Structure formats: structure tokens, C-alpha cells
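input
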Amino acid sequence: MKYSRVFIDTIGYELAPEVVTSSEIEERLAPLYATLRIQPGQLESMTGIIERRFWEPGFALSRGAALAAEQALAASGVKSTEIGALVYAGVCREHFEPATACHVAGRLLEMGHRLSPSAHIYDLSNACLGMLNGIIDIANRIELGQIRAGLVVSCESAREIVDTMIERMLQERDMALFKTAIATMTGGSAAAAIILTDRSFGNPDSHRLAGGVCLSAPQWHNLCRWGIEPLPGPRLASGNALSYRQFMCTDSVEVLEHGIELGQETWKAFVEELGWSEGVHRTICHQVGMSHREAILRLLDLAEEHDFVAYDYLGNTGTVALPLAAALAAEREFLEAGQRVGFLGIGSGLNCTMLGIEW
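output
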């Protein structure tokens, strides 16, 4: 896919306030470590994540997304009434119904940012690729001339699932469970918002979205799952469980192996599609962790010094991770005008999306 009239106008973000170190998480897991004879320091050593952030208990996802959106609007020449579509693309949502995007729009209204009555407001979900898919969805609308500007938002919260899995690991004290729960301990919390336009709003510093490629390998759909499962115990007459709990299960070794394979295929198609045979100047990868980053950069023959890292102090913030890293990279002047920048995303499923931006 290629675009001729789509630009990333601004990126806003909101960081969760509570810093939680990997050492603090391991202190909570001390009884499990003692039972399984695991030495402290493994979490940081295996993932490269020193700390992550959590929202305060009970924090509303729509509030975080709205705060990030307000920042993006403040830096943009686009008025809220000119937003033709608002897409919420997070894994975490406030309710089954209505769309969390509706809650975000409501909070923006309370903050003085009224959307047009004709704006499309809806959710989109695809694991950690949600915001990249949202970018594509908005880009297609702009390219077709349906809207002039759109807003993609997300807010992810890791506190609840981390607390749940720690409690379960302490109860079961099982090595197999520990191995599938390690990835859960890398989770962080943050919010991000991206405004895309047709560049008719007068922002000379916007960045052209050249295009991208999406590839999938759904045979690996069971490698990483996050959801709700029934608790053991009495059931209703219908057979349904009386109570449920959150769970997250990741086969990190298989995800790495097959994710890298899919990444290689996607990169080849990406370079060919955009005609970027000379490569890219900078990359922003999804912020999974140290092993994934080192492996994908090595296999794609990309220089580590040209790739921006944020996971070490923010953790894996899911859909927010890549756009948040891009915003931080721009702030620190890691990204400069004229550079070809690759957004390299991968999500459970398995799906891989790579977008090219002329910064």
C-alpha cells in the first residue's frame, strides 16, 4: 500500500505516574523464587527492562487517551471539530459496550474539545498492532478524500494483569507457569494519540506517510493470549462458571522464533513496496524487550545505533509502545527532517505491519 496525501501531523502521549522497577516485582515474587531456586535479577537480565510505569488504581483508560489526544491537538493546527474520525485502538478497554472511543470523545468534550457530529467514532483491535492499524484505517479515509484529518488514540494499563499473574504464580509456584508469565511482567502503562491529515492545515513540520506492508501467520495464533478464563469450582446449572479471572500466557521462545521469521518476510516486502532499496535511516520497533530487538535488527541487518529504545524504562506498553517511542525519539532529535523512518510493528496472531514515513 502507498499513500500520496497522508501526513502524520502530531503525536501526543501521557506517561503513567507510578514507577515500578523489575527489582520491586521480583521482591513480590521472592517466595516463588525461593521455591523454584531462581536467582534475583533474572527479570531485568532476560528482558532488558529496568522499570515500567503503572496508572493509579481505578484510573480510567479513556482519561489517559483523552489527555494524550489533548496534547496532540495542542501541538497541531487541527481543531477538534475538524477531526473526521476518532479510533480507539487499545487492547485494554473500559467496557464491552459502548466503544471506548465514545468515552474518549465524551472526555474530550468535557475538556472543551468538541468533535464534529459527523465524526466516525469507533474501536479497532489487533493486539499490539492496534495503533498502526488505526493509522492505516485513517490514512485510507484521507487518501480517498472522505476526511481531512483523523485521530488514533490508545491507553494501556498493565497493573491489573501483573497483579493477577503475580498472585497466581505465588499460589501455584510452578516453573511452567513462571515461564509463560515472564512476558506479562514486562508490561507497562501509557497513552498515546496520533493526528493524521491531508496537510491542508498548514503544518510544515508534518511527516509524509509513504506507505507500508502487512503480513500475517495465523497458524501461530495461540502463542500469546490475554483474556478471561473460568475459575475452578462450582458451576451454574447451565454449566457456566460462577467466577472468572484474567490470564496472560506467552510462549516467549516460539513468539520470538516465528515473529522473527514473519518480520524478515515483511521487511523484504516493505523495502520492495516503497522502493527503499537503499534502506532506512532510522527505525522504531515495537518495544517488546532486549532479545526480540537484538534478533530482529541482526537478521534485518539494521544498525542498533539507528534504532530507538524506550522499553528499558517504560516496559512493553502494547499498542502505545511504538508511537510513544517515536514521539520520544522526535523530542530527543533522534529523528530528523529528510530521514526515511521505518515503524516496525508485530502483534500476537501473528501479524506484522511496517510503515514508512518520510520524516
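quick obs: The first strand starts at residue 7 and ends at 15.
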